[in-house]
What we know:
disordered N terminus, 18 helices
Amino acid sequence: MAHRQHPFMKAIQSVALWTHRHRVLWYVLALAVLASLVFLGFLALRSGRSNIKLILILFALSAWSTIMYRVPDYGHTVEEREAEHEYTAYNLGILLSEQGDEEGAQAAYRLAIDSGHPDQAPTAAVNLGILLSEQGDTEGERAAYRLAIDSGHPDATPMAAYNLGILLGEQGDMEGARAAYQLAIDSGHPDATPMAAYNLGALLSEQGDEEGAQAAYQLAVDSSHPDRAPTSAVNLGVLLDDRGDAEGARAAYQLAIDSGHPDATPMGAYNLGVLLDNRGDAEGARTAYQLAIDSGHPDAGSLAAVRLGALLTEQGDTEGARAAYQLAIDSGHPDIAPMAMHNLRILLSEQDDTVGERGLPRHRLRPPTRRRDGAEASRPSRRRP
Length: 385
C-alpha cells in the first residue's frame, strides 16, 4: 500500500523546491549567519576582551558565510540554474517513488515534464508512465509514454516505445503492440532493441508467424545483450525444433547454456536434453539433464530430474531413477513434484508390489517436451531509461 505523505511534509517539499529554484534559502541563511557573527564580534570587542583567537574565528566564519552567499550564483547562467532545478524535480520524483509516496512522486515528475527540459522532461515522462501503470491508470500511462516517444529523446523514446508495446499487448491491441516494439527495435538502442525484439518474437510466435518470430529472436540473440540474448536463444531453439531444424535448435540451446544466464542456461540444458533424448542420444541427454539439475533452478532442475528418472528407468538403472525422482519430489514444485511421485510409485510397485501404490496405471508421466525460458509467460516489467 502506498505511503500517504503528511500535508505538512508536502508543504515543506514544495517550499524546498521553490527556494532551491530562486536561491532564497541560500541568501537568507548566509545573511543570517553573517549578521549574527558580526554582532557577536562587535560584542566581544566592546567587552574589552581582546581574545585574538575568538576574533579570528569570527571573521573566518564571516568570510565563509560571504563565500557561501556568493558561490550558489557564481559562474551559473539562468539556463544552468533552471536545468539544475528540473534535475532536482526529476530526482525528487525518483526518491519519493522509492519511499512509496506515489502522489508526491507524480507531482515531482509532472513538474519536470512541464519544464519542457530536453532531457529531464522525456525521462520523467517514462517514469511517470511506469508509476501510473502501477496505479492502474492505463490512459495516463499511455499518454505519458506518447509524450516521451514524441520527444525524440535517444533513451526515453525507445524505452517508452518498449513500455507502450507491453501496455498495448496487455490491452489486446496486438497490432499497436507490434508497431511499438518495432519502433523500439528500429531505434538501435542497446537495451530497448533486444528487449523489444524478444517481446515481439513471443507475440509473433503466439500469432503463428514463425518466420517473423524467428527473425525477432535472432535479432535479440545477435545483440549479445546479457539478458535477452540468452533467453531469446532458448525460445529460438524451441521454435527451430518445432520447424524441424534440429541442428539449429541444438546450436541455439548450446548458446544459452554457454551464456551462464541464471534462467536461460538451465532451461537451455533441459531443452537440449529433451532434443537428444528424442533422437536416441541417451548419454548426451543424461549429461544435459544433469547440468540442469545441478543448476538448482526451480523449474528446469525439477523438469530435468523427472526426465532423467524416466531415462534411467528405461536403461535399467532403478537406483539412479529413484534418486532422480526423489530430487524432483523434494523440490516441492507444485506441478512437477506430483508427477515425480507418480512415476516413483510405479517404479516401486514394479520392483515389489508390496511397496508403493497398487492399481496405478502403468504409464509414466513426462514433463513437457520443451520449455521456453519462461519470461514471456509472466507479465513483462516496464523499464526506465
